[in-house]
Automatic annotation (TrEMBL):
<feature type="transmembrane region" description="Helical">
    <location>
        <begin position="705"/>
        <end position="730"/>
    </location>
</feature>
<keyword id="KW-0812">Transmembrane</keyword>
<feature type="region of interest" description="Disordered">
    <location>
        <begin position="1"/>
        <end position="29"/>
    </location>
</feature>
<keyword id="KW-0813">Transport</keyword>
<protein>
    <submittedName>
        <fullName>Oligopeptide transporter</fullName>
    </submittedName>
</protein>
<feature type="transmembrane region" description="Helical">
    <location>
        <begin position="521"/>
        <end position="540"/>
    </location>
</feature>
<keyword id="KW-0571">Peptide transport</keyword>
<dbReference type="GO" id="GO:0015031">
    <property type="term" value="P:protein transport"/>
</dbReference>
<dbReference type="Pfam" id="PF03169">
    <property type="entry name" value="OPT"/>
</dbReference>
<dbReference type="GO" id="GO:0035673">
    <property type="term" value="F:oligopeptide transmembrane transporter activity"/>
</dbReference>
<keyword id="KW-0653">Protein transport</keyword>
<feature type="transmembrane region" description="Helical">
    <location>
        <begin position="667"/>
        <end position="685"/>
    </location>
</feature>
<feature type="transmembrane region" description="Helical">
    <location>
        <begin position="87"/>
        <end position="105"/>
    </location>
</feature>
<feature type="transmembrane region" description="Helical">
    <location>
        <begin position="188"/>
        <end position="208"/>
    </location>
</feature>
<dbReference type="GO" id="GO:0016020">
    <property type="term" value="C:membrane"/>
</dbReference>
<feature type="transmembrane region" description="Helical">
    <location>
        <begin position="251"/>
        <end position="269"/>
    </location>
</feature>
<feature type="transmembrane region" description="Helical">
    <location>
        <begin position="593"/>
        <end position="616"/>
    </location>
</feature>
Length: 800
């Protein structure tokens, strides 16, 4: 990792972190422990946002150990109590709010993620409000308001909200079974299946916390901005700290109120603002213009040079105001490559591209042509038990994918394995240090303990003391964890995690058989073993680099070859591997943020969130089934996630005919192998002609973005890059003080105001309560049967 610098105010000859904290002021930025920093696209470098001083102006940070000691606060007050009425009330409330909103977003034409930063800011505002208005005297004060709102309460609320604000992939599997397989037999089993799939990932990460959390190399960079925000609210000892926080909160509420009112227009009254295309307005009858410049409607086009005024879609994958400049450059290169690749393959008629819609996640019948596209009849190739029959498949013929969807599968698979090579070539030292626990000597030491496999065994006080002494002397151990042991905080014992895993696993196995999921018991055992492997390896990679892998394609490929002919087994195997591994990553990340009391708040948040996920899924599928099955959907609802999930489940269930070497789509599988070699030329070029520009580009990120536009509303991409480059280049470089003080709080306000309004509109007018109330058609809300929202021509291909 390259050296990076903390930018505190000049501190004469004393550069201790304590003095730097007290001397920094809001005028010159923020105190050293709160300096906003962003992850660079390498993505292991960390770069601080602000003026770059000479070395004597601050502390030079070289590695993860320096970050956790020089940047993040090492102060702790053991007397602070997180177990308050405020914590439970706000934690549960935000977990419910976030889980409902996230499930709604999964049925949108573009997936949007609830902002955890926004929930953190809201938790602070409501926590301070409750501390101010609830009486502090008498029995009410003793139980409801025992002390001022503190950091540990705030962190616990954030952890519970984080656990709840995770849309369970099991709800997609259930929705697919409901929409495409005639329904599932038991609602009760469906609920428990959702909960068990969420908890298995959590418990696996809890059992692996010695590897994923405690080493100092496991920085979990995605926590850094959130930690900075928490310390901004609670960590400053400066005399004017309260004034600074109040000023920033005032900015937050003003921006949130403005965007709340504004979003009524693009979301409901004036949806043309979702994507304004000058080219489509000039040529409303040209399909090339639609495919290239259109993108305001779901699965319409690539949205090139369209302008979006709807923050919901601009920040759909995360606010561009947070995105590091280097990552943005890599994504821009991939985005431009995606446009060239998709247009070239479609108009080159690769794999009969023009016989099918330009963008779609459905499987199509081979009898489709440039006028009519016939959706593949999946029920015609399956028995009543939903198992593919080879004779029926032969009679029906193999299904076809749209060429753009095929390109997405190839580029993302290529990018996945390219990431391994990129990390080994450019970040080998970091990986080697972080994986030192896997050395032969460490493994030998582990298994020398006769009780190493007994996770259910409670350790003795003597063993606890020996373990603490060993960790205190271990340079690889996180300093924050050492403070926790020094202050004698109690962690959830290992057997708690093991017991919860056993219970969740047993419940999941029963549910799978009740649901007639066709996943055999031995397949469920394999799913759990793969979850351990994926959480261990991909979780460690994310903890080091901050880059999360989308392992869903690998899980569905494994299921395809393990359970040939069983698409439902594919759905649920993926649910218990990909989804469980993703939830494991969430737990490990949050354990790094606050290792105390996490067991209780995360398990409760997970259970509440999973329950609300299921409730919202049932409501949306019942009321919007017809739209969810359609190819394009509407600008409000879309089943593209479910369609994509089901499409891959069916396609991989006949993998030997679809994706194996020699088959029609063999490059989807070969891309995994090719990806290992793609980053090598760049690395060799740097060895021959050394230059910083070679390391600036990350081939794995570029490859992933080359399939970016295969789905959803793409009219927001131009605005996404415009906002991102304005914030991360112009403001960060030329207005650093404003950037340090307000960039992240403004970003949270924009997310919060927008997502709150979407939550309200979903139930008020978008049909979330069972009845929709569409706004009357006018020039700003055109009839989409004649034109798309941006007035681009509607595709002449009729999907049947």
């Amino acid at each position: 990792m390259d050296s990076i610098e903390v930018k505190p105010k000049r501190a004469d000859s004393d550069t201790s972190s304590e003095k730097l904290k007290h001397e920094a002021s809001d005028k010159d930025g923020v105190e050293v422990s709160n300096v906003p920093y962003v992850l660079k696209g390498d993505p292991t470098d960390v770069e601080f946002a602000g003026n770059v001083p000479s070395p004597e102006d601050g502390v030079v940070v070289h590695n993860a150990a320096d970050i956790v000691t020089q940047v993040l606060s090492l102060e702790d007050d053991p007397s602070l109590n997180p177990w308050t009425f405020r914590m439970w009330f706000l934690g549960l409330g935000l977990a419910i709010f976030g889980s409902v909103l996230q499930e709604i977003f999964y049925f949108k034409p573009q997936v949007i993620y609830v902002s955890l930063v926004f929930l953190t800011v809201i938790a602070y505002a409501f926590g301070e409000f409750m501390a101010a208005v609830i009486p502090r005297r008498g029995w009410m004060g003793r139980w409801l308001n025992p002390h001022p709102f503190n950091l540990k309460e705030h962190a616990a609320i954030t952890l519970m909200a984080s656990a709840g604000t995770q849309s369970a992939l099991a709800t997609e599997a259930l929705a697919a079974q409901q929409l495409f397989y005639g329904g599932y037999p038991s609602k009760a089993a469906g609920i428990f299946l959702v909960l068990s799939s969420q908890l298995i990932g959590y418990t696996v990460a809890g059992l692996l916390r010695n590897v994923l959390v405690r080493p100092v190399k496991m920085l979990w960079p995605s926590n850094l901005p959130l930690t900075s925000l928490l310390e901004t609210f609670h960590g400053s000892k400066a005399p004017d700290a309260k004034t600074i926080v109040k000023k920033r909160m005032k900015i937050f509420w003003i921006i949130a109120a403005i965007i709340f009112v504004w979003e009524v227009f693009p979301e409901y009254i004036f949806p043309v603002l979702e994507g304004v295309s000058i080219f489509c307005l000039a040529r409303q009858d040209n399909m090339v213009f639609t495919n290239l410049f259109g993108g305001a409607s779901g699965n319409e086009g690539l949205g090139f040079l369209s302008i979006c005024f709807d923050w919901q879609y601009i920040a759909s994958l995360g606010s561009p105001m947070w995105l590091p400049l280097e990552t943005m450059v890599n994504s821009l290169v991939g985005y431009l490559g995606c446009i060239i690749l998709f247009m070239g393959m479609y108009y080159g008629n690769i794999f009969r591209a023009q016989d099918f819609p330009f963008l779609s996640q459905e499987l199509f019948d081979g009898t489709s042509n440039g006028t009519n596209a016939f959706i593949f009849n999946q029920t015609a190739i399956m028995t009543p038990e939903f198992i593919v029959d080879d004779q029926l498949l032969k009679a029906e013929g193999l299904p076809w994918l749209t060429t753009t969807y095929l390109a997405y599968l190839i580029t993302t698979n290529l990018g996945l394995t390219a990431c391994f090579t990129h990390m080994m070539l450019w970040n080998y030292d970091d990986l080697k240090a972080a994986w030192s626990w896997a050395s032969p000597s460490s493994i030998k030491e582990l298994i020398s303990d006769p009780h190493w496999y007994k996770f259910w065994r409670t350790s003795t006080p003597e063993e606890d003391q020996a373990w603490a002494a060993k960790m205190m002397d271990d340079d690889r151990c996180d300093p924050h964890y050492k403070i926790m042991m020094k202050n004698e905080y109690k962690e959830a014992p290992m057997w708690w995690w093991g017991a919860l895993l056993a219970i969740s696993w047993a419940v999941g196995l029963v549910c799978l058989y009740v649901m007639k999921a066709t996943l055999p018991w031995w397949g469920f055992i394999l799913s759990t073993l793969f979850t351990f492997v994926f959480v261990l390896f991909f979780g460690a990679q994310q903890g080091i680099t901050g880059f999360g892998f989308n392992i869903q394609p690998i899980c569905q490929m494994l299921a395809g070859y393990l359970f040939p002919g069983r698409p439902l087994a594919n759905l649920y195997f993926t649910c218990y591997t990909y989804n469980a591994a993703a939830m494991g990553g969430v737990l490990a990340r949050d354990l790094k943020l606050a290792p105390m009391c996490t067991f209780a708040v995360q398990v409760v948040g997970c259970l509440v969130g999973g329950m609300m996920n299921w409730v919202m899924m049932v409501d949306i599928v019942q009321n919007q089934a017809t739209i969810l099955k359609s190819v394009q959907g509407t600008n409000i609802w879309s089943g593209q996630n479910i369609q994509q999930f089901n499409t891959l489940a069916i396609a991989w269930s006949i993998a030997k005919d679809m994706f194996s070497v020699g088959a029609k789509y063999q490059w989807v599988t070969l891309a995994y192998l090719l990806g290992f070699f793609v980053p090598i030329p760049q690395y060799l070029a740097n060895k021959i002609y050394p230059h910083r520009v070679w390391s600036y580009f990350n081939i794995s990120i570029i490859a992933w973005y080359m399939g970016w536009l295969f789905v959803g509303i793409n009219a927001s991409i131009t605005s996404y890059f415009a906002v991102g480059f304005f914030a991360q280049f112009y403001l960060r470089k030329y207005r650093p003080r404003w950037f340090n003080k307000y960039n992240y709080i403004v970003s949270a306000a924009l997310d919060g105001g927008t997502q709150t309004l979407v939550f309200i509109l979903t139930f008020a007018v978008f049909g979330g309560s069972g009845k929709d109330r569409p706004f009357p058609n006018w020039a700003g809300n055109p009839d989409t049967s004649v034109h798309n929202l941006d007035y681009c021509a509607v595709s002449p291909i009729v999907v049947q």
